[in-house]
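Entry 14. Ran structure prediction on the chain below.
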Amino acid sequence: MGGSRWQAVLRNWVVPLLPSSICTEAVRRVDALADLPQGDTCLVHGDLAGSNVLWGNGRVVGVLDWDLAALDDPAEDAAALATWHGWSLIAQMVDSDTTGRARAFADTHPLQAIAFAVLNDRAPAEIQRAVARAARRLRPTG
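Output, structure tokens:
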């Protein structure tokens, strides 16, 4: 979502694309992630979900698409796995500190999808779909 300039990408490129009614929430999520204490770093896949994880007989048999791999916070991969497979399983994967950081990463997933589309010069219609999905996910409840 922009490498070392991820925070500026989200704040300056992504947030302005959102409906004004959710911009404050989007900025809160970006700031929450930026304010996290840095955990230990390790090799992180960066997109550890969906069809990038191959399963056979209830076990992981392969992991594809390593182009986003980097030394980073393992909470990033934990967030992807928990979002894909259920947050009830996260305690089986990581400790409570990593879980807290994973929630902050996951809270920015809708914004990351927009950043990916913008940074990769996707078609305007694709960017608008990402914005619409993010708007639904960031809309306050209750």
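The longest helix spans residues 20-34. Will compare against last week's run tomorrow.
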